[in-house]
Amino acid sequence: VRLTPPVDSRKLYRQRVANPSPESDFSQWTYCNQYNAVIVTCCSLGAEVSILWIKSDQGIYWLKSTDYGATFGNPELIDYSPTTAIYGIAAAYKPNGDLALFFADQTTLYVKKYVSGNWQNKVAWDKTTGDLSGVAAVYDGDWNLFITGRTHRATLNCGHLSMAMTTM
Questions:
Q1: Of 39, 52, 80, 143, which one is least surrounded by beta carbons within 10 A?
Q2: Nearest by Cα to 104 from 120, 119, 90
Q3: How far apart are CA 91 and CA 93, in angstroms?
C-alpha cells in the first residue's frame, strides 16, 4: 500500500503481484477510491488481507480481502482517532484471525482489536512516554511491539517493548 503526497490529495493505492519474482512488474498500482489518508498500514493472514488507515477527518477505516488481495470489500469506518497527528501505525493478526491495530500520536499508544468478528473499543496505553515516532507489531504468542521515539532528555534510536497487550 502507499499514499500519494498532500499535493495529490493523499490518495490510497494498493498493489498485488500474485507470484512475485525478480522479473515481476511492480509498477502497477490500483487506486482504492480513497483520499485524504494521513497514514496507512496493512497485514495478512492466509488469504485474508487488511488495509487500515486514518483519514484527515480522524476516521479510522478498514478494507478487507478474503482472496489474497485479488478483490476487496467496501471500506468500513471502524472508529475515530483522537488526532490526525499520528506518528506510527501497525497491524498484525493472531493465528485465530483476531487483528490488532496499533497507532501512536505524540505521547500515547492506542490499540484497537478485532476479536471474534467484532471491533472492540480502542484503549490507550497507560504508560508514560516521551515523544513517540513509530510502531511496528507482530504476533508471536503475544503482541510484540517495536516502538520508536525520544525522551525529553535524549533520543531513543529504538525501544523494544514486549508485553501482554491483552491488558491494554
A1: 80
A2: 90
A3: 7
